TrEMBL record, chain A:
Alphabetical list of PANTHER family matching this protein: CHROMATE TRANSPORT PROTEIN-RELATED, CHROMATE TRANSPORTER
Organism name: Acididesulfobacillus acetoxydans
Name listed for the protein in its UniProt record: Chromate transporter
Membrane topology: Multi-pass membrane protein
Annotated transmembrane regions: 12-30, 78-100, 120-151, 157-174
Family statement: Belongs to the chromate ion transporter (CHR) (TC 2.A.51) family.
InterPro entries associated with the record: CHR_Transporter, Chromate_transpt
GO cellular component entries: plasma membrane
Pfam families per record: Chromate_transp
TrEMBL record, chain B:
Family note: Belongs to the chromate ion transporter (CHR) (TC 2.A.51) family.
Identification of the protein by name: Chromate transporter
TM region(s), chain numbering: 79-103, 115-132, 144-173
Membrane topology classification: Multi-pass membrane protein
Location of this chain's protein in the cell: Cell membrane
Keyword GTP-binding: no
Keywords from the UniProt entry: Cell membrane, Membrane, Transmembrane, Transmembrane helix
Keyword Chaperone: no
Listed Pfam families: Chromate_transp
Source organism (scientific name): Acididesulfobacillus acetoxydans
InterPro entries found in the cross-reference section: CHR_Transporter, Chromate_transpt
Gene Ontology CC annotation, any one: plasma membrane
Length: 175, 181
């Protein structure tokens, strides 16, 4: 149990605190820890966690640790996962907020973040490919994906709506 | 004081939990609470706080809540800001997680999840595409992407690739201030 909690702390500490560049980057970094490294979930199960996170408001970087942490070690797991994800930077902004304001707009920092962005794109693309390998079985799943592409491209439907309606569709089609 | 702490809690509960689409979607809502409703910060101060938040890793919404909550009401303010941001969706996501585990073998749940997974793949792919459009302003960025893809294929941990890319960016993309005359 304690061992699990420690692993949850390490996994989500790493995933969140190397996640530069906005919400979406946490998904590939967390997948690396949750699926590839600690084998807590399969790629398909991790997709369920992302679906749950996308269907709810609030930060992605706390919902996935909560979801996964709870499955591994109950409420303590969820709390440890969230704490590992948000604790370090919360402390940094409290202790150093004033100092950081001087450097936040520095061109050197912006140059560093510009270097990271292509990496983030590659990470996210790789995660979606890996998930695709376990998510497509039969033409109906391809049709759902195609429909999702068309809806996202031509309308402004919110992703949460897509997730909920695909759950209902699955209930009707795959049972 | 107690009133301030309570206001911090309410402000961040509202802005975080009415914002669909992850942390970044909550920023305008947060600005509305922090600048317009409670006058804790001016627009300029909020922009500075946001710049600090964007310079650090980890979720943006919790960094903003800790920073602004601390400014308004010290450590209790920071804690209540974080609680308001995180707690409501944490409870809901844990309940969802619980039911998905509980009914893991139910055919109903399996049917539903089978249909949602392709949608998740598309949503993540779409994020890669829309971020991709803004992330390649010059040729060297394509080189970084190619190098990252190769390193990932070789099972190098993403954290190492990210740090390496930052170091590369520091040397390659920093504006040259002291040009030789």
């Amino acid at each position: 149990m304690l061992h699990n909690l420690w692993n949850l702390f390490v996994g989500f500490f790493r995933a969140s605190n190397f996640g530069f560049g906005g919400g979406a980057v946490f998904i590939p970094l967390m997948q690396v820890e949750v699926v590839n490294r600690f084998h807590w979930l399969t790629n398909a199960q991790f997709a369920d966690a992302v679906a749950a996170a996308n269907a709810l408001p609030g930060p992605v970087g706390t919902k996935i640790p909560g979801y996964v942490g709870y499955q591994i070690a109950g409420w303590p797991g969820a709390l440890v996962g969230v704490l590992a994800s948000i604790g370090p930077t919360a402390l940094i902004v409290i202790l150093l907020g004033g100092v950081l304001m001087k450097y936040a707009n520095s061109p050197k920092l912006r140059a560093m973040l510009q270097g990271v962005r292509p990496v983030v794109v590659v990470l996210i693309a790789k995660t979606s490919l890996q998930m695709a390998m376990t998510s497509f079985s039969g033409w109906v799943t391809w049709a759902i994906a195609l429909a999702a592409v068309i809806i996202l491209y031509y309308t402004k439907v919110h992703p949460a709506v897509l997730i909920v309606s695909s759950l209902v569709l699955g209930l009707l089609v795959f049972r | 004081m107690l009133r301030d702490i309570w206001n911090v809690f309410i402000a961040f509960t509202r802005s975080s939990n009415l914002g669909f689409g992850g942390g970044p979607a909550t920023i305008p809502l947060m600005q509305n609470e922090v600048v317009k409703r409670y006058h804790w910060l001016t627009d300029e101060e909020f922009a500075d706080a946001l710049a600090v938040g964007n310079a650090l890793p980890a979720p943006i919404a919790t960094k903003m809540a800790a920073m602004i909550g601390y400014r308004v009401a010290g450590l209790p303010g920071a804690l209540m800001g974080l609680l308001g941001t995180v707690a409501p969706t944490l409870i809901v996501v844990v309940v969802l997680s619980h039911f998905i585990m509980l009914y893991a073998h139910s055919t109903v749940l399996r049917a539903m999840l089978k249909a949602v997974r392709p949608v998740v793949v598309i949503l993540i792919a779409q994020t890669a595409v829309s971020m991709g459009k803004k992330s390649f302003p010059r040729k060297a960025t394509w080189g970084i992407a190619a190098a990252a893809a190769i390193l990932l294929y070789l099972h190098v941990h993403p954290a190492i690739i990210i740090v390496a890319a930052m170091i590369f960016g520091y040397f390659a993309f920093s504006p040259r201030n002291h040009q030789k005359s």
